[in-house]
Design brief:
The complex is a heterodimer of chains A (about 110) and B (about 110).
Chain A lengths: L3 E2 L5 E4 L4 E7 L7 E6 L6 E6 L3 E5 L2 E6 L4 E6 L8 E9 L2 E7 L3 E6 L1
Parallel strand pairs in A: 2-11
Antiparallel strand pairs in A: 1-3, 3-8, 4-5, 4-9, 6-7, 7-8, 9-10, 9-11
Chain B lengths: L3 E4 L2 E4 L5 E7 L5 E7 L5 E7 L6 E2 L7 E4 L5 E5 L8 E8 L7 E2 L3 E5 L1
Parallel strand pairs in B: 2-11
Antiparallel strand pairs in B: 1-3, 3-8, 4-5, 4-9, 5-6, 7-8, 9-10, 9-11
Classes of the chains: A mainly beta (about 110), B mainly beta (about 110).
Chain lengths: ~110, ~110
């Protein structure tokens, strides 16, 4: 079992819809959770970070964390074609807070 | 402010050759990372350095060595390259701990 799991997609949504991206992790001691966006041929860039259970909103993006279920999600409201990218979930590991493990990423396609 | 600089950007090696990927950051960050990215595999952690003078193995350390030369520089060495090491390599840094990563532009390595 991978330590951080994501559905590879592609997830295809129409412009203006809500895109929901999911991530599960295996380490119950994980404390820090991140969502990165990566355009094709580019480096990953941070979208959201979340550390406590519940929701965290930033513009059109909402991160949701449920530590009991070991589940973190990213909602993108009013999806735009420019949101088409691969979204990577990253989680720190309990054996070292410095050890950041990424999932394999979910490819999102927003249809105009 | 250059951020994280990786060299070279592209490299072609023959099986058995050695090479070193260089990474330097000018943000006074304490922690530095090397990841590799293969199609459909997301980012996999090779080695990380929590602070100057320390290095630790990540998920896929076999076939690689690292050196944290000083606070700014973190190099990745392939002693005897293999085709399985064909990948895009990303260096990243963060102020400390499981925090926001700043990535370099990536180094594309092909081993024939």
């Amino acid at each position: 079992q991978k330590e951080v799991e994501q559905n590879s997609g592609p997830l295809s949504v129409p412009e203006g819809a809500i895109a929901s991206l999911n991530c599960t992790y295996s380490d119950r001691g994980s404390q820090s959770f991140f969502w990165y966006r990566q355009y094709s041929g580019k480096s990953p860039e941070l979208i959201m970070s979340i550390y406590s259970n519940g929701d965290k909103e930033d513009g059109r993006f909402t991160a949701q964390l449920n530590k009991a279920s070991q589940y973190v999600s990213l909602l993108i409201r009013d999806s735009q074609p420019s949101d088409s990218a691969t979204y990577l979930c990253a989680v720190n590991m309990m054996d070292s807070s410095y050890k950041l493990i990424f999932g394999s990423g979910t490819r999102l396609l927003v249809r105009p | 402010n250059a951020g994280v600089t990786q060299t070279p950007k592209f490299q072609v090696l023959k099986t058995g050759q050695s090479m070193t990927l260089q990474c330097a950051q000018d943000m006074n960050h304490n922690s530095m990372y090397w990841y590799r990215q293969d199609p459909g595999m997301g980012l996999r952690l090779i080695y990380y350095s929590a602070s100057e003078g320390t290095t630790d193995k990540g998920e896929v350390p076999n076939g690689y060595n690292v050196s944290r030369l000083n606070k700014r520089e973190f190099s990745l060495r392939l002693e005897s390259a293999a085709p399985s090491q064909t990948s895009v390599y990303f260096c990243a840094s963060t102020p400390s701990g499981a925090n926001v990563l700043t990535f370099g532009a990536g180094s594309r390595l092909t081993v024939l």
